[in-house]
Amino acid sequence: MDLPSSFIHSMSQLLSSEELKEFLKALSVDTPVSIRLNKGKPFIRPKEGWEQVPWCSMGYYLPMRPTFTFDPLFHVGAYYVQEASSMFLSQVVQTYVKEPAVALDLCAAPGGKSTLLQDNLPDGSLLIANEVMPHRAQILKENLVKWGHPSTIVSHNDSSAFSHLTHFFDFILTDVPCSGEGMFRKDEVAIEEWNLENVDACWKRQRMIVENVWPSLKPGGILVYSTCTFNTLENEQNIRWIQENLGADILDVPVLEDWKITSALGGEKIPVYRFLPHKTKGEGLFMAVLRKTSAEEPIFSGRKKEKQKKPTKNNAVSIPNICKEWIKDRDNFQFQLYKDMIIAFPKTYVEQWGILSQNLNILHAGITIGSIKGKDVIPDHCLAMSQVASDSFPREEVSYNQAISYLRKESLSLSAETPKGFVLLTYNHQPLGFVKNVGNRANNLYPQEWRIRSGFSPEQVITP
């Protein structure tokens, strides 16, 4: 690995000469493969050879890298491929979030930490997952829909949009864009793009992002700051700046010694958590936890409180009652028409949804039940993926090859006994997605933009 000399020099200021050698050697070793199981879809069990990630009960290191693209259970949200270091967030949430919370993942794509938050926040919480880059925001939406948690909103906004939501959130994760030094051994582009000028631009942008979102955090609320880089400019020095300029306490997180997590570097004496690849099994990560110390009383507000509104309803068309039977515990949801889509959203947070709809660009909210086409309601793929979908549709179990054909959005033929109409296909008895059986064929309703595009078929499929 040909690392920039200026990067090596900067690390030599933080590590002893002997430790620097170990650090650089570790960067030439293959990245460990790890996944995190979906708590809401518990149909995968740990197998022989799996090693549990110490700080995350649902995380596991795998002995080899599976062919994830060709595993149908990956596409239905049974698990998420995530770096083990990033899973440390579960330890933070379980330590400091004890009651239902309104949480924001500000820089959320592709969705690893958002799905982790959904599994670790207390029951009854609401998660807003945001991404500023348009293409990445669509990937975020896809991954959260597949994860299937109903109390979710996906938005596409710059951090400045959140400054108007005064004291709105109990918990904010800022996994800020960084210089990416922790990704060097898995991403050659990160090495090519690294330079001191970019590091300088990153720490300034990171402060701006935190400053933008800080007004939306409630007094006493928790902000988690993380990067995937090693230098102190983007890490310890930014934490000091937040503490001194925005008003925050830096909090401890309980860790065990055998986790081999590193404390602050650069002479700082503050509780932060560093994952260095020559010590901890995972990629490079920095994380710190802060509590807002402002004494102001919480204010539940939007940009224009007197004009707050709920998502637009289409009152010309009523919602068919049968759609309400498609999810469990339907009395806990409010059903609304948004354009031609039927959406079910948790009643507890309808007011918050209205405020967010006024202030933000919303891509997804709650459960998209289906779309109205004339007299028909076409069930949405979001419903098939939802953790609260009821058993309202006839099901047909498909083979592995049929599942891959479905995920490629190819045409399918079902058994002669399959009833006509909408059918939920299952693989390993888990929902895969809808088709409309018209007798001689089944129309594939898998989202076009999510299909497996590769025509390659591996000789051997390795699954977790």
Attribute tags:
464 residues; alpha+beta; Rossmann fold; Nuclear Transport Factor 2, Chain: A; 3 domains; 4-stranded antiparallel β-sheet; globular
State the helicity in percent bands.
25-40%
Shape: globular
CATH architectural designation of the largest domain: 3-Layer(aba) Sandwich
Strand content: 15-25%
The biggest beta sheet reads: 9 strands, mixed
The tally of domains stands at 3
Can you lay out the helices and strands and say which pair or pack?
Layout: H1 5-12, H2 17-26, E1 34-37, E2 51-52, E3 59-61, H3 72-75, E4 79-81, H4 89-96, E5 102-105, H5 112-120, E6 126-130, H6 134-147, E7 152-155, E8 169-175, H7 188-193, H8 196-213, E9 217-227, H9 236-247, E10 248-251, E11 273-275, E12 285-292, H10 321-324, E13 333-338, E14 341-346, H11 350-359, E15 362-365, E16 367-373, E17 376-379, H12 381-385, E18 395-397, H13 400-407, E19 421-427, E20 430-437, E21 442-444
Parallel strand pairs: 5-6, 5-8, 6-7, 8-9, 18-19
Antiparallel strand pairs: 1-3, 1-4, 2-3, 7-15, 9-12, 10-12, 11-12, 13-14, 14-16, 16-17, 19-20, 20-21
Helix pairs in contact: 4-5, 8-9
